[in-house]
Amino acid sequence: MFQVLYRSEGDQLFPPDQLGPLLTASRTRNAAAGLTGMLVFAQNHFLQVLEGRAENVVDTFARIERDSRHRNIVTLFRGHAPAGCCFAEWAMGFHLIASQHDMPRGFIRVNHRIDLTQFDHVTALEFLSACQRNTRNL
User: Fold this and answer.
1) Backbone dihedral angles phi then psi of residue 91, each to the nearest 5 degrees
2) What is the mean pLDDT of residues 22-46?
3) How would CATH label the architecture of 2-132?
């Protein structure tokens, strides 16, 4: 199973009401490509893992890198996942962190916020897994 794990910042303030159409389109494309994954959105930052056949994951990530809605994209992991598929039940799982009550327990918060930019790939995967348990579908 090939994975790409990345974080990015919205190009401008990304309104949460635009997430629904984005997720619908992503889920359709991911299902057609045989991809699974998980997306977290917090304080205008995205944290996402994509899983599947290498060429499909790479193609999808290349499209994300060209998407003008993302900036400051940082690849945290790109390669064959030693644990295999972690998010098999989701074409694109999603968790919105709109308040401190949406954050999974056990992660360091500063002023009741989580700083996704401080995660390495291991912490990011742990965070995505914790968010998966509280996924909000749009």
Assistant:
1) -65, -30
2) 89
3) 2-Layer Sandwich (3.30)
